[in-house]
Amino acid sequence: MIKFLLIIIIILISLALLTKGDSGIINIYYNGTVVAELHNVSEFNLIGDYAGGLKVIGAEYNLSNGHLFLKGNGTIYVYYRATLPKGVIQIQENNNFTISIYLPTNSTITYVTPQPYSFTAINGLYNITFVNVSKVILLYVEAPLPTQKSESTEYQLIILLLIADIVLISLIVYFFFRRRKEARKVELEEEENTELVTDVLDERDKLVLNALKDGSSTLAEIIRKTNLPKATAYRRLKKLVKLGYVEEVRERGKIRYVLKKKD
After folding, report:
1. What pLDDT digit, counting tens, does each position of 203-245 carry?
2. Residue 33 and residue 188: Cα distance in Å, rounded?
3. CA dihedral of residues 105, 108, 114, 120 (deg, nearest 10)
4. Is the peptide bond before 114 cis (omega within 30 degrees of 0)?
């Protein structure tokens, strides 16, 4: 029983020492939110640059040049938003307070004075607490959070790569067949030129002659009848004219082809 009483006395003495001259509690968040519980205080210095949203409960007040003048006794609650310099939290009050500063857990403190009473982490925030102080300076650096690629971004990248592959393959196939077509065209022209220098009639020559026998007389009609390319049909007609099988007749700016009568 005596041991229990001694423990209670020690706790009460500790609390008395910690709260001696303490005029309340001030909570400052890294995003500029300030919440204060003031005890019998007539003047309160705003922390940072005032950014609006001031609410005072328990007293009348007057705000002037960053100072809040209060008219009331007992406990007063103050809430407002402040603009804080990047990486800097500085408090200068006329009375002693318990001050808690909340920073993201990805922050690194580079300078602090005075020595904090406690340092804890809760709900993704560091809680740095100072007891019975009127002045605090804390400098910190907030590290960037690691970025994570979303699944949708990865899928979009895969789709883009697939589209690029399809386009590339299509271009390769197109140019392959185009070169084959051009090469075949050259072969046919060479074959055609070779056949034109001979006096022997081949299958194409006979197709043209048969078309003429069936009544075709113009280049267009011969092409429709034989299904030969225009250039091939024209060369064959010239060959047949040269060999004496066909006669070229010009009438009123138009050209007709007729079979020559055998003597």
Report:
1. 888 899 998 888 888 999 999 989 999 888 898 888 888 888 8
2. 86
3. 20
4. yes
Strand pairing of 22-29 and 88-104? parallel
The C-alpha atoms of residue 41 and residue 56 are separated, in whole angstroms, by 13
| Total residue count of the chain as it appears in this document | 263
Nearest residue to 79 via CA among 26, 146, 41: 26
pLDDT digits (tens, 9 = 90+) for 155-173: 888 898 889 889 889 888 8
Residue of 142, 100, 155, 102 whose CA lies nearest to 126: 102
pTM over 0.85: no
Instruction: Give the residue among 100, 35, 40, 34 at the shortest CA–CA distance from 75.
Output: 40
- Name the CATH superfamily housing domain 20-142: tricorn interacting facor f3 domain (2.60.40.1730)
Looking at 3.90.700.10, 2.60.40.1120, 1.10.10.10, 3.30.10.20, the CATH number of the domain 198-263 comes to 1.10.10.10
- Per-residue three-class SS string for 212-244: HHCCCCCHHHHHHHHCCCHHHHHHHHHHHHHHC
Q: Is 173 left (phi over 0), alpha (psi -120 to 50) or beta?
A: alpha
